Amino acid sequence: MSGHSKWNNIQGRKNAQDAKRGKIFQKLSREIYMAAKASGPDPDTNPALRLVMDKAKAANMPNDNVDRAIKKATSATEGENYDEVSYEGYGPGGVAILVHALTDNRNRTATNVRVAFTRNGGNLGETGSVSYMFDRRGYMAIERAGLDLDEDAMLEAVIEAGGEDLLTSPEVFEIYTAPEDFTAVRDALTEAGFTLAQAELTMVPSTTTEVTPEQKEQLQRLVDKLEDDDDVSEVYTSLEE
C-alpha cells in the first residue's frame, strides 16, 4: 500500500516545537475556542472539538488551558471572531506550500504571510494554485519499538479498523485513512491495544518535490517563519523527505 511518509518530518520538528510551546498553546486555544463556539462544548457530540482537544493533549497542553478556551467560547459574551483563511504558494526549489490560518485581521495575516514568502525564497500564489496538489487525509503513526508485529499483521489490523494505506519503515507504521473515517479508525486501533504516537487530520501532497540541501535549508527557514506567526495554524509542503 502506498502513501506519503510524514514521520521524519514530524520527528525533525519536535524540538523546534518544544521551544515554541507557549505559542503553540495560544494557537490551540484559538482552535478549541472556534470549535466549541461553532458546535458546542461537548467533545462527544462535537467531533471537531474532540480532534483539537486530542491535538492539545498530544502537545501536553494543560487541561486548565483547554477548559478556559471552552468556557470562553460558551460564555454569554460575544467574544472574538476568527476567520479561517488559506494561502498558497511555492518555496525554494518549486516546493508547493499550503498555509492555513485563523485570524481576526485578514490584512495583517496576508501581509505577514506574503513577507515570509518573499524574504525566504518563495512566491505567494493565487487561490487554487497549489491546493489541488494536496488531499485531506487522516494520519496515524505507531512506533515499532517494543511492538512484536510484522507488516502483514499490522496491515490486517489496519484493514480491520477501516484504514486505507499502510507505510512501513524500520521505526514506524504509518496509517492513512479517508478524513471521514479518521475518528473511527483511530478509536478502533486504540481499542485494539495500539499506542498512537501521532494521530491527526492532515493535508498530504499527491506528488513530492526533491530539492538540494541548500534549498531545503532555505525552505525550512520559510516554514519556520510562517509557523512563528500567531495567526498561522498549519503549514503543509510537498517536500520529498
Structure description:
The protein is α+β, with helices and mostly antiparallel strands and 241 residues long. 44% of the residues lie in helices and 22% in strands. The protein has eight helices and eight strands; from the N terminus they run H-H-H-H-E-E-H-E-E-H-E-E-H-E-H-E. The chain has helices spanning 7-19, 21-39, 47-58, 63-74, 106-118, 151-161, 182-191, 213-228; strands spanning 83-90, 96-103, 123-124, 134-143, 165-168, 172-177, 198-205, 232-237. Strands 3-1-2-8 form a four-stranded antiparallel sheet. A four-stranded antiparallel sheet has the order 5-6-4-7. The radius of gyration is 18 Å and the shape is globular. The two termini are 18 Å apart.
Topology summary:
Blueprint: H1 7-19, H2 21-39, H3 47-58, H4 63-74, E1 83-90, E2 96-103, H5 106-118, E3 123-124, E4 134-143, H6 151-161, E5 165-168, E6 172-177, H7 182-191, E7 198-205, H8 213-228, E8 232-237
Antiparallel strand pairs: 1-2, 1-3, 2-8, 4-6, 4-7, 5-6
Helix pairs in contact: 2-3, 2-4
Let me know the largest β-sheet: 4 strands, antiparallel
Distance from N terminus to C terminus (CA atoms, Å) equals 18 Å
Structural category: alpha+beta
Oligomer: single chain
- Helix fraction, binned, reads 40-55%
Order of helices and strands: HHHHEEHEEHEEHEHE
What is the overall pLDDT average?
89
Spatial extent as radius of gyration: 18 Å
